[in-house]
Amino acid sequence: MKKTFREKFVARCGAKVKKHKWLKFPMAIYMTVVLLAYHTGRNLVDNGKRYSCAVLLLLFLVVGSSFAMPESLDRQGEEAALLAGGAQLAAEQEVNEAEVAVIDIETDDMETYDDVALLSDVELDTYTLEEILESNSDYRNLVETVENETAAAGMPESDYSDYVFDASDWRLILINKQHSIPEDYTFPLGTITGSMQCDERILEELLAMMQAAKDDGVDLVVCSPYRDYNRQTYLFEKKITRYMNAGMSYMDAYKTASMSTTSPNASEHRIGLAIDFYSSSYLRLDTGFADTAAGQWLAAHSYEYGFILRYPEGKEYITGIGYEPWHFRYVGVEAATVITEKGITLEEFWEDL
Ligand SMILES: [Zn+2]
CA angle 313-317-320, nearest 5°? Predict the structure, then answer.
């Protein structure tokens, strides 16, 4: 009868131990290891089909559960999903997490404002008409001259329906997120008072408007007119830093900041044609200004002096900026009259230019 491997192996080892008694202990260990390996191998070979079936079944269960319950994917589960070809599911999950993070940060200022960075800025300078006129006697003379001229000639002509507008007119320049300030743009910078500046060419009408409001019993306070590049950049970068501190990448922080604050190259304040107004009884830049006497006077009369409410309510989808009843833009009396009468924005005005 043919001997098995086990019998031959034991017999051979037994013979060796008989010859050398000292081999008894190491031989016992050697035999155990060899026989264990031999039997495990035999077992695997004999039951190969059963084991492969079990492995396949296990793999199938892992793959199946990854597709059936994508919402259960978490950081640990992502590995299994990737192995099972679920890379796309994992990627979508990451995008959703990023969106949630943006929404969390945005809840405190969901609206998009040109001046939002200023809303919490405490370094604002503000001046009333009296303070401006006291600081510069030329301005007092100028305002008096305009008043006398208006009294002599009556109200200026108000029908500009036939007026021919010129797209290269400096007063009409369109600045927004799609139209940034031309790199070679220059303008004469005039001083309102102290460090407060604006385009020199709008000073006369700005002061005349403030005087007219005062004559009607309304105190307008000028705030934040011209902001230079450094100032606007500082406000914008402050916003980016805030988002990055909240865990955003620079690119995400930049995108989110431009949704809620005007980037330096898209702000009318940088070209000296935008003025933000307070009233002495309402020293805040928020939509409540619209209900003040100053807000209502400006909404009704600013066009007579060439200013328009630049970011009206209900036109946010066109201007890309939230309602700002305090932000007025000089466009000249002709364009301001047409824009106000038609109830359109500067963007819409340009469509017909
Ligand atoms: Zn503004």
Answer: 90
